[in-house]
Amino acid sequence: MIKIEEKLFQNRYRVDEGRPHIEITNPSVCADSCAVQACTFACPAACYSATESGGVEVNTDGCLECGTCRIICSEHHNVDWAYPRGGHGILFKFG
Questions:
Q1: pLDDT for 63-75, tens place per residue?
Q2: How far apart, in whole angstroms, are the C-alpha atoms of residue 4 and residue 11?
Q3: Gap between the Cα atoms of 14 and 87, Å rounded
């Protein structure tokens, strides 16, 4: 049986330098108002991580563009998400 990590490794991601397609709208909301920080464990590509200061940072490299972060942050609506510019983003190996 193949692990999910091995399948995800087969995908490629073309980074759009300086133009991330996901941003945290207000970082202080993550640090002060969001006790669960569900994005840090719900994102299948592990793009979100908790910081030492109690906030959340996002690294869009490897994003699967699934939209989980938009759905999981429904209480605070603190994720600004859009599809990457044409030719950038996830490149699925098998279509």
A1: 999 999 999 999 9
A2: 11
A3: 8
